[in-house]
Design goal:
4 helices
Length: 292
């Protein structure tokens, strides 16, 4: 009987100990779950921005003509930004679709040129000083935030001149690794937050398509006469920069975004010179939401 009593007491003590451990583990798990839920909510917060713009265009492509063509640039940008779990939640991801179309004329204004293309970019930015460039107004304790990182981008475009000739059009294509930096400043006026955002990027390295000097597209694609048509791009032969400055203006439940975009794309491949300069005034709206 004593042995049975001792066994019952030991079993009861073990059950009490197990119950206390389970209760403590449950409390610890709930605390961790709550923290994880908060982090997940922050990391699932997504900023969507859609902007349209118009401005000036300046294009030179010596494969088609030795003259500059100037006119109007039309642009649409779709941007998505969110914080990630990388490096303790300090890395922001940016997805950017940039679509533009140019309508230009030569100096004599008797020849038309049409140019444009689409660039898709995926970038990752490390936030310094514990900041948050995605939603700095609500998620950062500092008025000034800075982030820098790398991005990968791909471009497809064309330049066309409506004149007779064997080569009236020039295709544009590249795959690039870019270096980029981003800064935000939260300006408070009469308890309203006006957010300035500036971003600059330039290509570091990549590959690009280019016909060789005097080579026709018939030779390149029909006769398959390869002549260094895939070239290595770096700042020495592709010195380019992209700038974007925006201001977010709160209007009741919406956020109006106005901005300025400047793009300077230049290249010198296979003895062919190309540049495309654009300055655009942009306007659009922002929207924050949570991914499932």
């Amino acid at each position: 009987m004593k042995v049975i009593t001792i066994m019952y007491k030991g079993l009861a003590m073990a059950m009490l100990l197990l119950l206390s451990l389970c209760t403590y583990g449950q409390e610890e798990t709930e605390a961790n779950s709550e923290q994880l839920t908060v982090n997940c909510q922050l990391n699932k917060e997504v900023l969507h921005s859609t902007m349209i713009g118009v401005g000036s265009s300046n294009v030179l492509d010596t494969y088609l003509s030795s003259y500059n063509y100037k006119g109007t640039d039309y642009r649409i940008q779709r941007e998505t930004m969110r914080m990630t779990n990388l490096w303790g939640g300090r890395v922001a991801n940016q997805s950017l679709i940039d679509l533009n179309a140019d309508v230009n004329k030569n100096h004599a204004r008797n020849i038309d040129e049409y140019a444009g293309g689409i660039r898709y970019t995926q970038g990752w930015f490390y936030n310094f000083m514990g900041g948050n460039v995605v939603n700095p107004v609500e998620r950062s304790q500092s008025h000034f935030n800075f982030a820098a990182g790398l991005s990968a981008s791909g471009y497809l475009g064309v330049v066309y001149i409506n004149r007779s000739g064997n080569n009236p059009a020039q295709a544009k294509a590249d795959l690039l690794i870019n270096v980029s930096g981003m800064a935000t400043y939260d300006m408070v006026i009469a308890k309203h937050h006006y957010l300035w955002r500036y971003q600059v990027s330039f290509p570091l390295m990549g590959i690009a398509f280019s016909p060789n000097y005097g080579q026709s597209y018939y030779e390149a694609f029909v006769e398959e006469n390869y002549d260094h048509n895939v070239v290595f791009a770096y700042p020495g032969n592709m010195p380019s920069m992209r700038h974007k400055l925006t201001l977010d203006i709160p209007i009741k439940r919406y956020t109006l975004r106005v901005g300025y975009v400047a793009q300077f794309h230049q290249s010198m491949f296979n003895h062919l010179k190309y540049h495309s300069y654009a300055h655009d005034f942009m306007i659009g709206f922002n929207k924050y939401l949570y991914r499932r």
